[in-house]
Amino acid sequence: MGNKMSLEVEAQILFIVKKHPVGVRELSKIMRRRTQTIVSTIKRMTTAGLIEVQPEETHRKGRPRQIISATMLGDDYLQAFKKLKIKPLRSNRYDLAKAKRDAEYVNRLVARGREPYDAFLELNSLVRNRGDI
Fold this sequence. Notes:
Elements: H1 4-19, E1 22-23, H2 24-31, H3 35-48, E2 51-55, E3 66-70, H4 72-86, H5 93-111, H6 116-130
Antiparallel strand pairs: 1-3, 2-3
Helix pairs in contact: 1-4
């Protein structure tokens, strides 16, 4: 799989093909994305076993349309994606500012030749000895 954007695209493809199997062009139109983007994502998802691509049985001339359908693994993936989507991480500006300060403090410790984890253990033992924990 890939970054957040590609995970959402994969989930969207699975959601669409779970309703009814579709072809690449139709999927591209529904998702409003370039066909090339859809094709590369479909290849990646086929390799991962999330979808199957079967040629449509037809008596028309020309290349047969490729029909995309979800596999059982794809169904499981989509369910897991929906569960995770329900539980987003929440943070506010204060949390991000605190994380930035903590990271800057760790960088200062490292620059001074201190191991951050050792400093944490030392601070922990000082507080314990004082009796605040």
